[in-house]
């Protein structure tokens, strides 16, 4: 018979204000297996833990129930306490009286009743606990970074700097991401390319970093320290080894009328192309959909002009399989599609463009060589209207509920740069609020208003339409308390941003949780902001939530430091709560191996001996070093042969019984 | 039937097989009992006709572990159960010789009884007509009016076997197998609950459904395993007893080939196949059409995982149906 101690924590007033903690302790004393019960203000404090250790010795306890906060908060703490008191650390059960009781209830009587049930449940489970010993697993000293934008680049550089191998997988033909498309960066107005491209070169030349460009992660298996990823290297039809990046092929390509993605479709590119001059790797890719050779079988001009015979029309997708200790998600963002915002005229009126398109218009390497010219007639506009919060901070289903965070600042930047180049131009900005927290950010915005005379109008835009060759912007001026119709030559929509469309499938592949907007969730919003709740998965950049370049770079460094912390370890202490099958019950049907995400289950055909049984059977065996204790096999097993240590079927049933009693 | 007998005798004679798993005429003239015929014992009492409804595949779990090779006669629907059992490593295929045989649907004697015929002494099959001899005189019925429930919606064609014996062409009845499930879905939760309470409370826990089910092939069923904590529970009160069938339906979900044996053997006439068909319908809707036992390779949708799988929120979206 176990001798259980129950320790009820007040958590200051967090629990004690809603739960009668003394009553819970008293109720515990009535449970048959309970030898000692008490309550205390802060069980996790030094004195609280001493109290537990003393009680274990004094009352000769075999296990302890801590009725406190969520096990995610302090289970490890109390396991250490138990160990220090001479108990097996797995003879600890936590009854969650805070997150699952006091914080969600108001009525003290009812909350106390529930708290007693939760305590009883933990006692019922603990009576069936067995001491467990944790094993160890190794760590592959190599990291995978998914996404080659500024977030992925910085993370990879920082990890490589610590001496570990890093692979970057980028789905586009070049690394660089969105930052490569930007003109200048706020609030210092240094040129994005000038600060990004040296980093891209650093990545390319770093012997610790391998870039898999034009590639996608197809499959991930394993667990923290021991992931295996399958990477699809899409056929680019150009041999990366042979190509010198001379560009002869792109000059000669006769298929010239394909929308240039890098310039947001504002100009055209050839079917074989290098996305931009500083691309890394500087190897062209053939857009097979528009390539004449692929469409008709005739042409092959690029192969003819290539001095190094690098063009390979018969290239096929190849696969790379590599082992990793840690995976960093840096999948970034895209501006939302504006199809559902018909009233703003985007797509119908040529002179209504998005801010990323404006970014390309202002860029010296862009389609207009940095001159602001309207897409409709190539003329210089006299008046530009910027509209903020397009698709952000809305409540309807077409809008995002969140603030995209970067738009206030880049709109101020656009306004300043425009006025700087063209002081005679008129610039209006429609805004809901101007949000400029950040070092030198508000000063920057004030410069737009005060030095550059940008006309900020507080109000939203309801309609944009064309009249007499002008773009008419109908909106409200809330400070002036009137409706306005502004006559503009060019309208720039500060479009909301959303996670990249691949984020959801990558999240599923990594079993990393996401929020309803498809941003990756962090392990703790404040204390573990760069880690996913899934061990070994780290978050970098906008995939976790909207952020600007400086924030992205800081987070990238933080994620790298967490990865380095993991890769620096030689062994990881495993989780002893692993599965095991009972050969007397197992049928070898194979379903558990089917659902095991870690490949931890195999089958043997061996003699089984038991009461009245002696025969050769096929049954499941679990590799405990690989098992992560997810429990998928135990719920799949139709005969109840598979069980999870620390969470056995009997323990779970005992908990249910305790609740129903 | 003669072609089957000839084939068996041929295979006995050339030493391909040692035993045959087939049907034998039982106590009543319409009783057909699964039986293992041996080379030595011959085919005395062997029958194959409209009354051989039993799915023989499950017997192979034990038979295939014995010495020598066993020939099994599989109706089209049984070939699926066979494949599923092979997929679950329950049958030692090297000891089995499979022969697919034609089927025109099987007669449910219970349906005759429900028509008011009692004291049946003999049933003679003549084409599509059955002559039922009872203590109170002869009656004639159409075969298609008294087919087993499982045969009414059967669209299965035989999967590949070692040997196939073809039958004459035959037009199958065309009942939508999900029609009743849809009727149940259309009910309010209260009505549905009442329906199942009424049906399931007829259960006498004879375990016939479990014992006949090819998916319930476990060495030790959770209901027999004291350690599972379920065995005793299901006996404690009437409601928990009802849960027996629901737990069973969950256990066979994704593996049930819809062979319909559970309902056929239920002495209380509980439409147990509806529980399984509900699962099959859900699986088809959520993961795309899936037929368990279609081959011996594929992982069932419930034990495989793809990025396209529906999210758990589907439960809320669909409501309590």
Largest sheet of chain A: 5 strands, parallel
Total domain units of chain A: 5
Identify low-pLDDT runs of chain A.
none
Kindly provide the name of the CATH class of the largest domain in chain A.
Answer: Alpha Beta
Largest sheet of chain B: 5 strands, mixed
What features would you describe in this structure?
The complex is a heterodimer of chains A (about 650) and B (about 325). Chain A is α/β, with parallel strands linked by helices. Chain A has five domains: about 120 residues, Rossmann fold, CATH 3.40.50; about 180 residues, FAD/NAD(P)-binding domain, CATH 3.50.50; about 60 residues, no CATH class; about 160 residues, FAD/NAD(P)-binding domain (3-Layer(bba) Sandwich); about 70 residues, Alpha-Beta Plaits (2-Layer Sandwich), CATH 3.30.70.3270. In chain A, about 25% of the residues lie in helices and about 25% in strands. The longest helix of chain A has 19 residues. Chain B is globular and about 60 Å long. In chain B, a hairpin with a 2-residue loop joins β5 and β6.
Secondary structure blueprint with pairings:
The complex is a heterodimer of chains A (661) and B (321).
Chain A (H helix, E strand, L loop, with lengths): L3 E6 L11 H9 L4 E7 L5 H13 L4 E6 L2 H14 L7 E5 L11 H19 L9 E3 L3 E5 L3 H12 L3 E5 L14 E2 L4 E2 H14 L3 E4 L2 E9 L2 E8 L14 H5 L5 E2 L8 E2 L2 E2 L11 E2 L5 H5 L4 H5 L12 E7 L1 E4 L3 E3 L16 E3 H8 L20 E8 L16 H15 L4 E6 L9 H10 L4 E4 L2 E7 L2 E8 L4 E7 L1 E6 L1 E3 L3 H8 L26 E3 L9 H19 L3 E3 L5 E3 L9 H5 L5 E10 L2 E10 L9 H5 L5 E3 L4 H12 L1
Parallel strand pairs in A: 1-2, 1-3, 3-4, 6-7, 6-18, 7-10, 18-29, 20-27, 21-22, 21-27, 22-23
Antiparallel strand pairs in A: 5-30, 8-9, 11-12, 12-17, 13-14, 15-16, 19-28, 24-25, 25-26, 31-34, 32-33
Helix pairs in contact in A: 1-4, 2-3, 4-17, 5-6, 5-14, 10-11, 11-12
Chain B lengths: L1 H12 L5 E7 L6 E7 L21 H4 L6 E5 L1 H12 L8 E5 L8 H6 L5 E7 L2 E6 L2 E6 L6 H4 L10 E2 L14 H8 L2 H12 L7 H5 L20 H4 L1 H15 L8 H5 L7 H15 L26 H5 L3
Parallel strand pairs in B: 1-3, 3-4, 4-8
Antiparallel strand pairs in B: 1-2, 5-6, 6-7
């Amino acid at each position: 018979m176990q001798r259980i101690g129950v320790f009820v924590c007040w958590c200051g007033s967090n629990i004690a204000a809603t739960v009668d903690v003394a009553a819970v302790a008293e109720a515990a004393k009535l449970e048959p297996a309970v030898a000692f019960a008490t309550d205390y203000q802060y069980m996790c404090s030094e004195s609280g833990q001493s109290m537990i250790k003393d009680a274990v010795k004094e009352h000769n306890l075999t296990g302890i129930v801590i009725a406190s906060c969520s096990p995610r908060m302090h289970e490890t703490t109390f396991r250490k306490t138990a160990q220090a008191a001479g108990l097996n650390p797995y003879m600890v059960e936590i009854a969650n009286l805070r997150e699952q009781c006091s914080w969600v209830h108001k009525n003290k009587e009812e909350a106390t009743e529930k708290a007693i049930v939760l305590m009883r449940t933990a006692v019922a489970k603990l009576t069936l606990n067995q001491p467990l010993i944790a094993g160890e697993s190794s760590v592959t000293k190599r990291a995978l970074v998914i996404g080659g934008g500024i977030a992925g680049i910085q993370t990879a550089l920082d990890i490589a700097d610590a001496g570990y191998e890093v692979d970057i997988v980028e789905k586009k033909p070049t690394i660089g991401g969105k930052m490569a498309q930007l003109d200048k960066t706020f609030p210092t107005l240094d040129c994005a390319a000038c600060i990004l491209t040296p980093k891209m070169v650093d990545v390319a030349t770093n012997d610790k970093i391998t870039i898999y460009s034009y590639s996608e992660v197809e499959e991930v298996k394993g667990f923290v320290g021991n992931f295996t990823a399958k990477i699809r290297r899409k056929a680019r039809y150009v041999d990366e080894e042979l190509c010198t990046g001379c560009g002869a092929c792109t000059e000669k390509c006769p298929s010239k009328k394909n929308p240039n993605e890098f310039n947001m479709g504002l100009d055209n590119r050839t079917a074989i192309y290098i996305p931009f001059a500083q691309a890394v790797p500087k190897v062209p890719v053939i857009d097979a959909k528009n390539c004449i050779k692929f469409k008709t079988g005739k042409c092959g001009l690029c192969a003819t002009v290539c001095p190094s015979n690098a063009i390979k029309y018969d290239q096929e997708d190849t696969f790379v399989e590599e082992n990793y200790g840690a995976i960093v998600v840096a999948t970034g963002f895209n501006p939302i599609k504006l199809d559902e915002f018909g009233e703003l005229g985007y797509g119908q009126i040529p002179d209504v463009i998005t801010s990323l398109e404006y970014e390309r218009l202002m860029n010296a390497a862009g389609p207009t060589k940095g001159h602001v010219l309207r897409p409709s007639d190539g003329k210089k506009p006299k008046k530009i209207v910027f509209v903020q919060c397009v698709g952000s901070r809305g409540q309807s289903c077409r809008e995002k509920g969140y603030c995209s965070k970067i738009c206030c600042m880049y709109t101020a930047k656009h306004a300043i740069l425009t006025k700087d180049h063209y002081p005679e131009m008129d610039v209006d900005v429609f805004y809901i609020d101007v949000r400029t927290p950040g070092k030198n950010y508000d000063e920057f915005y004030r410069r737009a208003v005060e030095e550059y005379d940008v006309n900020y109008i507080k109000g939203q835009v309801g309609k944009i339409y064309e009249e007499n060759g002008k773009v008419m912007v109908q909106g409200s001026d809330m400070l002036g308390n009137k409706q306005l119709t502004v006559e503009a030559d060019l309208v720039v929509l500060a479009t909301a941003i959303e996670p990249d469309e691949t984020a959801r499938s990558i999240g599923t592949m990594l079993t990393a949780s996401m929020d309803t907007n498809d941003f990756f969730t962090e392990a703790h919003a404040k204390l573990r902001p760069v880690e996913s709740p899934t061990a070994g998965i780290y978050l970098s950049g906008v995939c976790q939530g909207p952020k600007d370049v400086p924030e992205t770079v800081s987070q990238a460094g933080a994620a790298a430091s967490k990865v380095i912390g993991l890769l620096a370890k030689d062994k990881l202490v495993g989780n002893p709560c692993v599965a095991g099958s009972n050969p007397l019950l197992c049928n070898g049907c194979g379903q558990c191996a089917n659902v095991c995400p870690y490949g931890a289950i195999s089958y043997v055909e061996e003699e089984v001996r038991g009461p009245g049984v002696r025969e050769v059977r096929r049954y499941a065996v679990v590799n405990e070093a690989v098992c992560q204790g997810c429990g998928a096999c135990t719920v799949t097993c139709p005969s109840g042969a598979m069980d999870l240590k620390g969470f056995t079927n009997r323990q779970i049933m005992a908990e249910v019984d305790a609740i129903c009693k | 039937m003669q072609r089957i007998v000839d084939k068996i005798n041929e295979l006995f004679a050339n030493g391909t097989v040692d035993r045959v798993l087939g049907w034998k005429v039982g106590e009543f003239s319409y009783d057909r009992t699964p039986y293992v015929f041996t080379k030595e014992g011959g085919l005395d009492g062997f029958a194959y006709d409209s009354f051989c409804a039993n799915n023989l595949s499950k017997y192979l779990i034990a038979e295939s572990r014995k010495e020598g090779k066993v020939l099994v006669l599989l109706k089209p629907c049984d070939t699926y159960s066979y494949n599923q059992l092979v997929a679950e490593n329950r049958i030692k295929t090297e000891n089995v010789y499979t022969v697919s045989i034609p089927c025109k649907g099987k007669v449910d004697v219970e349906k005759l009884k429900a028509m008011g015929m009692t004291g049946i002494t003999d049933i003679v099959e003549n084409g599509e007509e059955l002559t039922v001899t009872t203590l109170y005189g002869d009656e004639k019925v159409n075969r298609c009016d008294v087919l087993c429930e499982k045969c009414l919606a059967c669209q299965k064609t035989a999967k590949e076997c070692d040997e196939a014996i073809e039958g004459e062409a035959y037009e199958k009845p065309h009942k939508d197998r999900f029609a009743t499930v849809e009727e149940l879905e259309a009910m309010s939760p209260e009505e549905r609950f009442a329906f199942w309470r009424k049906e399931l409370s007829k259960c006498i826990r004879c375990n016939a459904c479990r014992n006949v089910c090819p998916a319930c092939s476990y060495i030790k069923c959770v209901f027999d395993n004291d350690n599972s904590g379920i065995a005793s529970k299901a006996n404690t009160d009437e409601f928990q007893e009802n849960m027996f069938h629901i737990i069973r339906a969950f256990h066979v979900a994704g593996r049930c080939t819809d062979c319909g044996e559970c309902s056929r053997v239920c002495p209380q006439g509980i439409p147990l196949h509806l529980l399984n068909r509900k699962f099959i319908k859900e699986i088809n809707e959520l993961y795309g059409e899936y037929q368990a036992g279609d081959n011996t390779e594929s992982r069932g949708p419930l034990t495989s995982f793809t990025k396209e799988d529906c999210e758990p929120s589907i439960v809320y979206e669909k409501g309590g149906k």
